[in-house]
Here is the input.
Amino acid sequence: MTTLSATALFAVTSRGLEEICAREMARFGLTVGEIAYRRVHAQASGELRPQHLRPLLALSTADDLFLEVSRWSGISHTRAALETLRELAEQLALRPALAVCTQLRPIDRRPLFSVTANFVGRRNYSSEDIKTALAVGIEASTGWVYTPDDREAGLNVRLFIEHENALVGVRLAATPLHRRSYKEEQRPGSLKPPVAAALLEMLALQVGERLLDPCCGAGTILAEAARRGASAQGGDIDAEAVAASRSNTENAGVSVPIELWDARSLPLADGSVDCIACNLPWDRQVAIDGDEAEFYAQLCAEMERVLVPGGRVALLTSKPELLTFEGLVCQEQVEISLFGQRPLITLYGSKGDC
Ligand SMILES: C[S@@+](CC[C@H](N)C(=O)[O-])C[C@H]1O[C@@H](n2cnc3c(N)ncnc32)[C@H](O)[C@@H]1O
Here is the structure.
């Protein structure tokens, strides 16, 4: 067993967003190391003090962030692994991680803890079996009490098993980072906030820039953009979506003008926005009115009209082949997993080549 320093962290993100999450982590001052499937490892330089830790909780493209506690090897797929896991859990040095988390929120010295377990590949045991093995080992060595209900836990221990290797972390925040308290209203096809944030990260959205989401749904992109300090505005053709996005952005404590409109004919002046980010309607989640190719062509022409010369556009769709711009070119494209599909986020600007 290798016990690692409390300054080693790892983020968990959506498939396809690893590089974008790594970019954001570097922007937050972390030194990015290994980038694995749905995971980004990093080091925080120096001691982890509250003033260095607290900003990390604003990492927007990560589903969650963990202090790396240990790496184990030799975890077989047979049920004998459960006893190995219990023994390894008994040797875990969790107190340094508890001390780090206590800098961010009040936690009992003998906290209630939860365990989350994920594994890749077939095994003769379930994630519930893994949780029990870890819970028993940790309870025996620390005297802390296990709870199956993560909502009442002061500390969450997370285990990932891939092949014969396991990674153990302790969640830095009280709740997973992807959970945003502002997002009370949902709409069909509504984005997970870290995916919305990834569009903005790809745009390299700056404080004060004017950002438009012309088909805003429940307003996730708008809320994320305004929280980053952009001057966001948006709209939707559906009155219920407009109400939902107004409510969510209000919950987020940001002021965002949101209108009922048809994005094919926007009530906006030529060259009036710096950036556009949009999760376009596509047939799987949100039906398109009329012919799909024509709808996309009209939408692209309108987006290009309202964009300033030199502006940037980040669009998420499973139909990027239908996106046609006169003066904008593809700068970057990433495929992600979403709603059981593999849509792409495409970044357009005035120069570049995908
Ligand atoms: C995939 S959803 C957007 C979800 C949003 N990003 C979120 O996180 O909630 C697509 C949205 O496009 C809207 N829409 C469809 N056709 C439109 C049009 N012609 N003009 C404006 N909005 C439209 C739909 O009503 C739907 O809310």
User: Anything to note?
Assistant: The radius of gyration is 22 Å. Residues 187, 189-191, 196, 214-218, 220-221, 236-238, 241, 262-264, 279, 281, 285-286, 289 surround S-adenosylmethionine (CB under 6 Å). The CA atoms of residues 283 and 292 lie 9 Å apart.
